[in-house]
Write a structure and sequence with these properties.
15 helices; globular; 425 residues; single chain; alpha/beta; Aspartate Aminotransferase, domain 2; Aspartate Aminotransferase, domain 1; four-stranded antiparallel beta sheet; seven-stranded mixed beta sheet
Length: 425
């Protein structure tokens, strides 16, 4: 298995997207309904920000709250035991989803952002000192920049940045050149949320490990679109957020090699992560419980389990082939529009297209296409340094998911044409 597995055209041909769409209640609604006007069918092309939820996830969470809800790991009564069993089972499901070696390498957090902050705080404060270097890339989401800057202000670490070329390809040679005896940590996106660029994770890790340097990958845009094998890429830490994976908000996942997690002190203190507490001192449980202080997002974890079941029931290879087809088609159609510039054309990129239109502010693009029922993202996409690299303050972004269709791509292209006509662009 490669890092983000290649797909076959035959997978896309056999994928029944209309059957998939029937599982998502929101996709049947109309938007901008007004008196005397029926409204527009929703064309949702913003899954890169947050994906919609299938009925199977919604019902699993509702059923759990109606029938089995209780706090976990504390009670001896029937509901507590049942809720605990269901919660703990999802940890194993996540481990299998990532091909992690064991359940105890999976930590539940409130988000991918918190997962990165956990590593920066717990590992960084313990093992990094003034003058140590941390390598990031110019493509990072702010969630994988700011925690390291906070550590920089506190500890005096040095941040180095890997560039990309004009196509948005990660500069592996430049990365290798930045690695030195001073390098003590690497934190890199696995798939850019702006460019769709998929980074060579296995090679990034190999080069770092030659120097004994641990590597964290932000996989929030990667696990949604392709199988990810954390053992194959040899990630030391891997994070992703659940709401992009067709699950609920308020939940993230941190994978960490157990020997590293075991060396790290708690990120937060509270109930359930302790062995014993006295005013003379406290002892802590082993990972992953050590990093899960307080009552966890129990219902959301049940939703994550249902989301994984749903994605795997469709077939991750089939989903990838379908999304690759949409990406190719959308790239071809949008490229025909004069004055439209696509940011990032790296080979093997994920199903994300960020673009600008000559003479038109991205917020105007988003506002007008919305009137046609087309939902896209506009702004800096929490990646301001990357926008500066490509000379744009903001851009529009269409991101495709397992429920999108070629007809929706056509709707996007038609609405962008309407923008061009409105502004005479």
């Amino acid at each position: 298995m490669v890092e983000l597995t290649r797909t076959r055209d035959s997978d896309a041909l056999s994928y029944d997207v209309e059957r998939v769409r029937a599982d998502f209640p929101v996709l049947s609604r109309l938007v901008h309904e007004r008196k005397g006007k029926p409204g527009k069918p929703l064309v949702y092309l913003d899954s890169g920000a947050s994906a919609h939820k299938p009925r199977q996830v919604i019902e699993a969470m509702s059923r759990f709250m109606e029938e089995d809800y209780s706090n976990i790991h504390r009670g001896v009564h029937f509901l507590s035991q049942r809720a605990t069993d269901r919660f703990d089972a999802v940890r194993g499901k996540v481990a299998r989803f990532l091909n992690a070696p064991s359940d105890n390498t999976i930590v539940f957090t409130r988000s991918a952002t918190e997962a990165i902050n956990l590593v920066a705080s717990s590992y960084g404060r313990t093992f990094l000192k003034e003058g140590d270097e941390v390598i990031l890339s110019v493509m990072e989401h702010h969630a994988n920049i700011v925690p390291w800057q906070l550590l920089q202000a506190e500890k005096g670490i040095v941040i180095k940045v890997v560039p990309v070329d004009d196509e948005g390809v990660f500069d592996l040679d430049a990365y290798a050149g930045l690695l030195s005896d001073r390098t003590k940590f690497v934190a890199i996106t696995h798939c850019s949320n702006v460019l769709g660029t998929v980074t060579p994770a296995r090679e990034i890790a190999r080069l770092a490990h030659e120097r004994g340097v641990p590597v964290l990958f932000d996989g929030s845009q990667a696990v949604v679109h392709r199988p990810v094998d954390v053992q194959e890429i040899d990630a030391d830490f891997y994070v992703f957020t659940v709401h992009k994976l067709y699950g609920p908000t308020g939940l993230g996942v941190l994978y960490g090699k157990y020997e590293l997690l075991k060396k790290m002190p708690p990120y937060q203190g509270g109930g359930d992560m302790i062995e014993a507490v006295s005013f003379e001192g406290t002892t802590f449980k082993l990972p992953p419980t050590r990093f899960e202080a307080g009552t966890p997002p129990i219902t959301e974890v049940i939703g994550l389990g249902a989301a994984i079941d749903y994605v795997e029931s469709l077939g991750r290879e089939a989903i990838a082939a379908h999304e690759d087809d949409l990406l190719k088609y959308a790239t071809q159609q949008l490229s025909q529009l004069e004055g439209l510039r696509i940011l990032g054309t790296a080979p093997g990129k994920g199903p994300i297209i960020s673009f600008t239109l000559d003479g038109v502010h991205p917020h105007d693009i988003g506002t007008i296409v919305d009137q046609y029922g087309v939902a896209i993202r506009v702004g800096r996409h929490c990646a301001e340094p990357l926008g500066e690299r490509f000379g744009v303050g903001a851009s529009a972004r269409a991101s495709f998911g397992l429920y999108n269709t070629r007809a929706e791509v056509d709707a996007l292209v038609s609405s962008v044409r309407a923008v061009k006509e409105f502004f005479g662009a």
